[in-house]
Amino acid sequence: MNLDARGTDGPRRVRDRIARLGLVALACVLLPASASAAKARSHRHASAPASAHSHAHPTLNAMRSWSAPTGTRVVFDFSAPVTLAGPDSGASRMLALSVPGEQATLHVGVPSTMLVRDSAVDSVRVMMTDDGLRLYLAFTDLVHFTVFTLAAEAEKPFRVVVDVTRPGAVAAEDRRLASIAAAKKSQRVRLVAVDAGHGGEDTGARGYGAMEKNVTLSIAKQLADALNAIPGVRAMLTRDRDFFIPLHERYKIAEKAHADMFISIHCNSSRRRGHGSGTEVYFLSLKGASDQADKDLADAENAADLVGGVPAQAEDDMVNVLYEVKRSSMLERSQLLAETLLDHMAAFAVLKSVEFPSVLVETAFINNPHEVKLLKDPAFQQRMAQQLSTGIKAYFSKAGVTLSPESSDSATGSDNSR
User: Fold this and answer.
1) Single pTM value for the model
2) Helix 378-398, helix 212-228: angle, nearest 10
3) Contact status, residue 124 vs residue 164, Cβ threshold 8 Å
4) Has residue 116 been placed in a domain?
5) Domain assignment present for 241
């Protein structure tokens, strides 16, 4: 049931994959605002120009790293598929991988050493030997690692991915989320999980110099600040900086913290550059996606896992976990939340529900030259966050959820970090 899709041209379609997620869309138009460019976040990386892909032999065109709360991801971009020799998982203080039997090369301009220097990875070194190209990763301690490859996908080249997990980091993160849940209960606050869509390898949609992952993080942070200013409400971020989180992990974070609500922030995008305007809000429907635009959105967001770097063998489990509907009552609450948000802001989109009302907010169109100026404008981001927070407060009232004015202002001051 598509209640209103005026002013939209359909979300971006990344690839045909799964469309098990039924979505109901609500939409409205954007309010005008002034614009000023915001700088995108930068990361350690080195890359070669696109012309490198024309080489006859595989070329290492880029390498980069992403630091997350539980570990580090190191990514190597190749101009063509390569066969690796080395362990695919294990525990060690160093990892050596090689590309034997092929004349793989390091592209001119890509440094042979990349310093990471976080709590999991110290450095990465590339060496050319008589036996072929070799990759060495020096870890900061005895760590667990997993190595896998990703085929070229959308705008992403063939990639070799090394995920490094610090010993005890997962348990420490679980304890942090448990402490948030305990604080929520003792301080009698309602906890809202704010999810900044995409991140790390998964940049999301792009438009006129803006990347979706950066816009969503900025809006999510401001929304968390606005929610924390409401008596009886506290917010936590699924990510507070630029790193990748698989879709199913985003919900697990909220569930472990016993969140009362999940709101995921995204940017809209049209398949036709420059077309589409406004905001949409989506929530899960038991009847399935209602029209092609809804199916396209489901395909696009599902494909984010593959683009961001989820190994293929994890997909089936991810789909089963992510799209299982456990409580139909939460679907009704998700619809009420979506409708209430649209009453207080200019357009958004909603996702799925598991243990709590959940919505996905598709903000302005990032590939519309006018609307991308709004998305990059800090004043517009702040106003959008304020409208969302006002809508969330109104939802609690409509749903009969009591907000305790006696709750401590310091309830979850540290909950916004991961």
Assistant:
1) 0.75
2) 50
3) no
4) yes
5) yes
Q: Which residues contact 144 (CB under 8 A, 6 or more apart)?
A: 89, 90, 91, 164, 165, 167
Q: Tell me: do 139 and 213 sit in the same domain.
A: no
DSSP 41: P
The distance of Cα 408 from the centroid of its chain, to the nearest Å, equals 30
* Nearest residue to 244 via CA among 17, 74, 415: 74
Structure tokens at 213: 């992952």
DSSP tag of 86: S
Q: What is the CATH number of the domain that holds 52?
A: 2.60.40.3500
Strand segments, DSSP code E, in 349-414 are 358-365
Query: Chain-centre distance of CA 29, in angstroms?
Result: 25
Residue that finishes a domain, picked among 114, 145, 166: 166
**Which range of residues forms the domain containing residue 131?**
45-166
CA–CA separation, 11 and 17 (whole Å): 15
Distances (CA, A) of 330 to 171, 262, 327, 397, 398: 29, 11, 6, 16, 14
Better-predicted residue by pLDDT, 128 or 42: 128
Calpha distance 170→286 (Å, rounded):
34
* Residue 28 reports pLDDT greater than 50: no
Beta-strand ranges (E) seen in 306-349 are none
pLDDT confidence bin for 390, thresholds 50/70/90:
very high
List, in order, residues 6 or more apart from 155 with CB less than 8 Å away: none
For residue 386, the domain's CATH number is 3.40.630.40
Burial class of residue 200 in the structure, from the number of CB atoms within 10 Å of its CB (0-12 exposed, 13-18 middle, 19+ buried): buried
190 and 56 housed in the same domain: no
Question: Which helix H or strand E contains 327, and what residues bound it?
Answer: none
Tokens of 18: 């799964």
Counting every residue written for the chain, the total comes to 418
Quick one: tokens of 76? 């190597």
Q: Which two tokens stand for residue 67?
A: 């630091």
